[in-house]
Amino acid sequence: MNIILFGPPGVGKGTQAGNIVKDFYLYKISTGDLLRDEIKKNTDLSKKIKSKIDQGLLVPDDIISDLIIKILSKKKYFNRLIFDGYPRNLNQAKNLDLLVKKYNQKISCVLGLNADKECINKRILGRLVCTKCGLTFNKYFNPPPKKKYDCNLKYLKTRSDDNENTIKKRFEEYTKKTLPILDYYADQRILHKIDGMKKINQVYKEICDIIASLET
Length: 216
Known about the structure:
This protein is an alpha/beta fold. Helices cover about 50% and strands about 15% of the residues. It is globular, with a radius of gyration of 17 Å.
């Protein structure tokens, strides 16, 4: 199956995607991760991408599409993907439909997480990412366990784009360009709305129930 995790920035898509990957043996495709990997190459393209991200703007669709094609064309990812943070606008959603059909795949369901703006601010401003292992924590909702955490706490960093000004721009972009995707997937009857303000384990239980219903 291929799954899309949908919701505003900071709603917890990354955390839930990690849980799904572990329990359902899927591969997580995060365009954010793909773009950050590209930035590390220090090319003209990487500088263009970094400038957009730092301003809280979306990266052009043609760049994103090329990254997605590379993933869908690999056999090991065939119908085993969970998209985290993609698509982000209606054009990307329609293009993704064309691409999955081209590679004889399909989108099984869309999980739409939601949360209010205050909660999202805390989740983003409190986000801590381990630069060593990639695990994500939050100092408000999911603090790293000091004794059981395998990596040293010194590796926990905030992302450069996790600041109030960028959050405001990203939320405005989401409201204007991304929310219309809900209706697009609702018309296809594959959208499942989930209250992202619940505790992490409660949200995940609801997700598991939805996935289980797809497999029966």
